[in-house]
Design brief:
Three copies of one chain form a homotrimer.
Chain A (H helix, E strand, L loop, with lengths): L7 H18 L1 H12 L14 H7 L4 H28 L5 H23 L6 H23 L3
Main location (chains A, B, C): endoplasmic reticulum
Enzyme class (chains A, B, C): transferase
Subcellular location (chains A, B, C): Endoplasmic reticulum membrane; Mitochondrion outer membrane
Chain lengths: ~150, ~150, ~150
């Protein structure tokens, strides 16, 4: 069944998986940016810039903008990790290049839009739809994996 | 050492990894279901159904049932991601099919039971034991990977 | 382009990925240890050792030491998952063994140091630098994946 890791589908998967994982990784510096500009931290050792003990205490709080970016990051972990696992197994079932590209592009596009919709934020149902489209692409690949491996 | 991605062990891994990742993904709609029925959201743009500003505020809270499902989802991320990574590397060390199936089935079974034990919830130590059995299966596969690759 | 899963680079990747994923998995028992010694739990069914209802309530709280370990675990999920995905794709681009080993060792070393710096904790910028070095190793591998697959 598997068509090997030299196929064009595998090259495409490598590219799209790397792009969407890099996007996920960029949520970390974005959280850092919001922590610095909102002056809001989670660890006492991160409040070295504080001048007084009261300043230190004020910097150890929960900020709504920071929490929004963190929820977006968490949603990425919950959705991009499954895509990468199921996408790799799907790639090895030897799908058509055009069908595979459609799945990879729809998923990556939906997650880029999801991030924009979450961070700005856009009105619902923008974020909800983006999440659903990404789930749909992953479910469709999972269906092919399960039907090809003769569950 | 590796026995290729055409082996029967790889087909079995594909199937079980996909099943357990799909189970993890289903925690997202389950969280959504609890958010809707408990009327409890994390983002202000998700409270569009509210009629008054007071309603909006009341909908932005932390609900114990929602948090329980979210902790279960987080535990999946912390345990299923390692299983998938170590399971793939284990598959490529060319284990016996029967030994590999034992590992995959024990892990997937323990995680299905873990979810039931967490969400209902069942009395402890149900959830704790399910978690430990899953960890054990992954550790056992990791041991084979490290001993086969001649650390 | 890919040089197969029989290469020495793949064996090295298997070893280092397994080590760093095992390290991540050990954060779970560490959280358990802190929960038990701090007598602080998240679920009501985990407070079976309590003798009175007041004891039960006191055990359901948020403890700063437990939260620190959990943040460290979360940071592992956010950084080690991308390393494993991009590291696997990087391995299949057929890099030099010595260059690949450098990437794997720098990443794994940075994450071991990150955990120490987070849990003790060490003064900043110890933890921040460890995080950045790990991100750098993953970004460098991602660059090779994208340039080899002719984006």
């Amino acid at each position: 069944m598997p068509s090997g890791i030299d196929s064009e589908v595998f090259l495409a998967f490598s590219t799209y998986a790397t792009i969407v994982v890099l996007k996920m990784m960029l949520m970390s510096p974005m959280t850092g940016y919001f922590r610095l500009t909102r002056n809001c931290f989670a660890n006492v050792e991160d409040t070295g810039m504080a001048k007084t003990p009261e300043d230190k205490k004020r910097m150890l709080r929960v900020d709504p903008d920071v929490e929004r970016v963190r929820r977006c990051h968490q949603n990425d972990l919950e959705n991009i990790t499954p895509f990468v696992v199921i996408g790799l197994l799907y790639t090895l079932t030897g799908p058509d290049l055009s069908t595979a590209l459609l799945h990879f592009r729809v998923f990556v596009g939906s997650r880029l839009f999801h991030t924009v919709a979450y961070v700005l934020p856009l009105r619902q149902p923008s974020r909800g739809l983006a999440w659903m489209v990404g789930m749909g692409a992953t479910f469709s690949m999972a269906y092919r994996v399960l039907s090809t491996t003769h569950l």
